[in-house]
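Dear colleague,

Following up on Tuesday's group meeting, I ran the structure prediction for the two-component complex that the binding team flagged. I've pasted the input sequences exactly as they went in, so you can double-check that nothing got truncated or mislabelled along the way. The structure tokens for the whole assembly follow below. Feel free to forward this to whoever is handling the docking comparison.

Inputs:
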Amino acid sequence: MDANPILAETVRGNWVENRHRGAYVVVDADGRIIASAGDIERPIFPRSAIKSMQALPIFAREAEGRFHHTDEELALACASHHGEAAHVATAEGLLTRIGLSAADLECGAHAPTNAAAREALRSAGAEPSSLHNNCSGKHSGMLSVALAMGVPTASYVGREHAVQKAVREAVEAVIGESLSEDRCGTDGCSIPTFAAPLRAFALGFARMATGKGLSPDLGAAARRLFDAATRHPHLVAGTGHPDTLLMRAFGGRLMQKVGAEGVQCGAIRDKGWGYALKCDDGNIAASQAMLAGMLLKLADSDTTQRQALKALAHQPIKSVRGAVVGELRAV
Amino acid sequence: MDANPILAETVRGNWVENRHRGAYVVVDADGRIIASAGDIERPIFPRSAIKSMQALPIFAREAEGRFHHTDEELALACASHHGEAAHVATAEGLLTRIGLSAADLECGAHAPTNAAAREALRSAGAEPSSLHNNCSGKHSGMLSVALAMGVPTASYVGREHAVQKAVREAVEAVIGESLSEDRCGTDGCSIPTFAAPLRAFALGFARMATGKGLSPDLGAAARRLFDAATRHPHLVAGTGHPDTLLMRAFGGRLMQKVGAEGVQCGAIRDKGWGYALKCDDGNIAASQAMLAGMLLKLADSDTTQRQALKALAHQPIKSVRGAVVGELRAV
């Protein structure tokens, strides 16, 4: 296997310390490649970067019509959220309205990603619940799909459950590829994740951004999800997170979502381009530097947007005493 | 620059998710290469992996003779410790005996690496101090060197301070290379770190393990440090850490030390071999898998030792709910 190019590196003092390889691709909805680096046909696990695709069955199965999901709930369905008050309240609100509770979530409990939220929970002497799991919005949405389909909610995370089959079909329709059990794993939140070529995920985001290549219903659902996410960037990640900051800076032009192990997917909506990026070694900060380097070249950004991107393309490395001793940077 | 080979990878389900490249080299004290992978001449920052070399001036400058460092203090000087009770007490004991205190440490304060120690400190309502810094043993040793040299202790972390010059000279003598300001940075604990070829650090460890190529004084000092570290593996890292577990399993045959950003250095003492390993992307867990893969091939290990190595060569990846969904493994 050929090595992907070095797309990010860390420098300490005057010498390079670490090197991060990866691949990215930017395509339009017809599959024309706008820009790329590395092996874009290598199948990668998209992980949480495609939560917006995994949320499509909310519409396809009429859960949306039945339960009237709010924009906030849709944004949270696309989110890897930080367990802050607004995130927890939004997930809990949906569950209550559909007659379920945190006990029905099968994602598992972990402490809030946000330090202040973690601290507040701790000070209150409370244990983290499944609602604090960064995936609780996606899982609440999946539970609403199970109810709308009239199937049991139990084991909705299983590969053979009707909900996961619907999710898989939606992703296949959007990326234009069959997903295979031969390239399948289990995500941190217990749902299946399928590997597919990096290029296919970029194409999926271009299609979702434009509606091209999708049925009218799927196109409308994709638009509603991207609108919800870009209007509520705090709900898609959390305070200080790059996805939130970038989407806020781009004011609706950019749909951006991180996935575990160094995946970045999204769309430059006004251009109708989708993109997908994977850092070979799974380092998230490095993948964010790579993403920023890519967007600085392609996104026609204004001053505010460039400032947000440059902060990611040059991340300071500090000593314990707080002195800047190096940086992680896009190459 | 040619890409180094993939030496570790993570698998999720039935598909490879991440790839980690790196280089390693095993040499004897005459510089004969026993085994290697990747570019062994590329200069790397050794970071904390060479704390045993940086501790040599304790002897050269007669601090040892003056202050009678205990084996425990010498082991802690070689350590990246976890801030557990024994670590803090040992650092504090040395400082008190030489008439100094935590206030003289210039490494900065951070919370204990060990979760239980962190929790205990927190429950007691206490703030982390410089004593909890994983480098406090090394820094206490450096303060003793300053006193023995009769120079001011203030700014002992600075590149121009007599202590750091002595450290630099000792490292140069051991690895057989000049260290250059052209390949220099600042470590997390504020002392200088110099990049040098991976091969040179391996040679340094082989020389320290055998005394070959070193002055009798330096050879004796190296032996005393390796003896201290391998007799007190808990002090060199902490509860559950791979360095502690491996050194305990090898009962004196193995000197092993991690460095930040995926560096591993050490010696198979009975064979007289030194080794150095660097994971290109800085991932520590991956570098530990690489190390285990290398030692499984070369260290003539018994059943207990192989068990410890295999646990590192195959590290489970779990979902939030605790199910094993993949592994990080040596390639």
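Chain B has a mean pLDDT of 97.

Cheers,
M.
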